[in-house]
Amino acid sequence: MEAVNLSRTDVDDIAEHLNAISARIPLRRIKTKRDYKAATAALNALLDSGGADENAPLATLVTLLGDLIGEYEETQSPPDSTSPADTLRFLMDQHRLNQSDLPEIGSQGVVSEILRGKRDLNVRQIKLLAERFNVGVQAFV
After folding, report:
1. What is the biggest distance separating any 2 CA atoms in the chain, rounded to whole angstroms?
2. pTM for the whole thing?
3. How are the residues of the chain apportioned to helix, strand and coil, as percentages rounded to the nearest 5?
4. Residue among 65, 73, 76 at smallest CA distance from 27
5. Mean pLDDT of the residues in the chain
């Protein structure tokens, strides 16, 4: 990384911009529910404005705010227990997959039954899904 030389004017300009941003978006460690609500509201507004695109001008800000929110959530709330079907549904959504995109589980009908809770994943399916999505098998147990 190249060294950055900042003049006093540069530093003052950066401080002014940072203060303006920080007045609207909490750019510090989140410690209270009030800060958390403000941060999530700001994140949602940024995402609604196109900040989810990694090439968007505010993508770095979205990432930073998301990291701060994630850090707070990890320390404040116990992880929700989710069903294997919920985990699979989440991963399918994240990877933009539909039921026919999971031949390792079985037919589209089998996947549908699993997602509706009418059928459980078996050990073979769990291992294959864990491998495919690069998660631990415990995510599906």
Report:
1. 66
2. 0.50
3. 65, 0, 35
4. 65
5. 87
